Amino acid sequence: MSDKVPELSIIGLTGLPEIRQGDDLGALIIEAVGSLGLTFRPGDILIVTQKVVSKAEGRVISLRDVTPSPLANSSAAFLHKDARLVELILREAKRIVRMDRGIVLAETRHGFTCANAGIDRSNLPDQDAAALLPLDPDGSAKAIRGRILSLCQVEVAVLISDTFGRPWRDGLTNVCIGVSGLIPIRDYNEVGDDFGRRLQATIIAVADELAAAGGLVMGKTERIPAVLVRGYPYSKGEGRASMLLRPAEQDLFR
Fold this sequence. Notes:
254 residues, alpha+beta, CATH 3.30.1330.100, CofE-like fold, 5-stranded mixed beta sheet, 3-stranded antiparallel beta sheet
């Protein structure tokens, strides 16, 4: 066993400007890292919020341009929600899991099950706009990672995070919806514990745990849309966020 004491650093990247469509998000993050007197190191993990990725990729929609369908209008009346928002949810959803108490629980085309198909209206300059999830969050993470490699010649891992609710537990937490350069799960199955018992159902969602840890530094109103995680010994590789999704045949709640 190593004598080194495990230590993890989570550094909030302050000073990023308001992100707009077409911005070079990777370059802006590099500038933010430099403004703190830091440089990327091999083995670093960069966590970026979905919101700034969606802004840079043009996934912010003006509700003024949305015409609700009859289904959206009837659903909105039942839910007491803006029919234009419901229309966007229906467009983005692969499957509506449940509508009740003003909430639409939907499965997105990515396979995520979340409120409002991941559509969010917070932290947008236009009060009559909504942000959709990136079309390909893994691709978004890969693009940012590639930009850092190109400009800094350093290999890092990149996670895209978003805030989801959880069944049976109150409160929200950040989870990973996009990944590049990191295997997002750690499988302890068939590994013995300290007392010789074999672990049989222990698969740790390390990317979700990293995203949640990053959320403690990001906050929600502090304008810190990215954090640098240093010191976590992750498994390198081209992981995918879909590796964090439970297969339908193993899902007891479908």
